[in-house]
Every structure is written in C-alpha cells, then in structure tokens.
Specification:
Elements lengths: L2 H31 L13 E4 L5 E5 L5 H6 L3 H7 L39 H4 L8 H9 L1 H4 L13 H12 L12
Antiparallel strand pairs: 1-2
Helix pairs in contact: 3-7, 5-7
The chain binds heme C.
Length: 183
C-alpha cells in the first residue's frame, strides 16, 4: 500500500471517529438541555384523599396546608389574579356564560353543573362532583393536568400564594361564603 493510500484510509478512519465523537457530544448537549431546571424539586407530592361521600378531595399539598394559605389570603389581590379569567368567565350573579361558564358561586358548585354551558367530555366526566377549595386549588394550578382534555385553554397559576388569593376572591362570589378549611 502506498503511503498516499495509507493516508487516505487513516484520514477516513479519523473522520469517522471524529463524527462519532461529534454525535456523542451533540447528544450530550441535547440530553443536558432537556434536564429540568430545578432537579430534585420534591414539594409536590400528590396525594388524593377520599372524602366520606366517596369523591376525591383533590390534590393535597404537602408544603403548606391550604387552610393556612387561605387564612392568610387576600381577596383583593385575588381579584387581580382573576383578571385573565375574566376574558372567558363572567363572575356576576346570574351573569352569562362566555367562552367558559359563569363562575358565581363556584366554590361548592357541582362540577360541569352550570346551566346552558356545553362542557367538554373531560370536564363532564365527573359531572356533579362538587368543587371545593382543594380541588379548585389543584385544578387552577394546571387545568390540563387536573382535567386532561379540558377545553379551558389556560396554562394555570403556578404560585400557591396567588392561587390562594384567587380562591379567597372566588369565595366572595356567593350569597353565603363556604368556610375555608381549617389551617
Ligand atoms: C381561554 C378561556 C379561559 C380562561 C382564560 C379561563 N377559563 Fe376557566 N374555563 C374555560 C372553559 C372553556 C371552561 C369549560 C372547560 C371544559 O368544559 O372542559 C372553563 C371551566 C372552568 C371551571 C369549571 C367550571 C364548572 O362549572 O365546573 C372553573 C372553576 C374555571 N374555569 C375557573 C377559571 C379561573 C379561576 C380562571 C382564571 C385563573 C379561568 N378559569 C380562566 C375557559 C377559560
């Protein structure tokens, strides 16, 4: 074999090796970029409790009890948190359905239970199960996760404190406020 030919083969081997290494490190980059931003974030242990009437109580948060959050919640701030909801929901008593159903009296109201609104199958699948603070707290964190397939296209409100304020506001939309759970 001439040294020229040897060089050609060696070059090809080298190029292949470089390509393999290149792909490997490229894979490394892709893999790394898919890692969650906060690894080891373990606060959200979802527990589904069962109530006496056999319906699930929603997702319990292990960080701080919802009762505590609600005791410290501010309905005025909640009204601000509720601004984006108003694009789709009317909050007034006897008010109309918009893109979403009217939300007067939503705490304690039956799920998918507002007259004249065409709910998605996903939402209607637990029709009649009453909304309580726990369930609303879990639903509003990430609607598409709590009710997969819901047609409420809203990403959710990530911060527990904001959702507690929001619930404190929603609680005021009633003739008789449903008491908060114990802290
Ligand atoms: C882009 C429009 C849109 C926005 C914004 C939106 N919703 Fe909804 N919402 C809907 C629709 C549509 C439904 C009905 C969902 C279904 O049938 O799957 C719904 C359903 C609900 C329900 C269940 C009602 C029932 O009768 O069972 C609650 C509670 C609710 N929304 C609260 C909120 C709150 C609180 C906000 C703001 C934080 C909000 N939504 C923002 C469109 C929206």
């Amino acid at each position: 074999m001439s040294s020229f030919e040897f060089n050609k083969i060696a070059g090809a081997v080298l190029a292949t090796a470089l390509m393999v290494f290149g792909l490997k490190s490229l894979a490394g980059v892709i893999y790394n970029s898919e890692r969650p931003e906060k690894p080891g974030y373990v606060i959200e242990v979802a527990e589904t409790a069962t109530q006496a009437d056999g319906t699930d109580a929603g997702t319990a948060q292990s960080a701080e009890s919802l009762g505590k959050l609600l005791a410290a919640a501010d309905p005025k701030k909640g009204e601000t948190v509720a601004k984006p909801c108003a694009g789709c929901h009317d909050f007034s008593k006897g008010g109309p359905n918009k893109v979403g159903p009217n939300l007067w009296g939503i705490v304690g109201r039956l799920r998918a239970g507002h007259e004249g609104f065409a709910y998605s199958e996903a939402m209607a699948s637990k029709k009649g199960d009453p909304w309580n603070y726990e369930k609303l707290f879990a639903f509003l964190k990430k609607p598409s996760e709590y009710v997969p397939g819901t047609k409420m296209s809203f990403g959710g409100i990530a911060k527990d404190k904001d959702r507690a304020d929001l619930l404190a506001y929603l609680a005021t939309l009633a003739d008789t406020k449903v008491p908060f759970p114990n802290p």
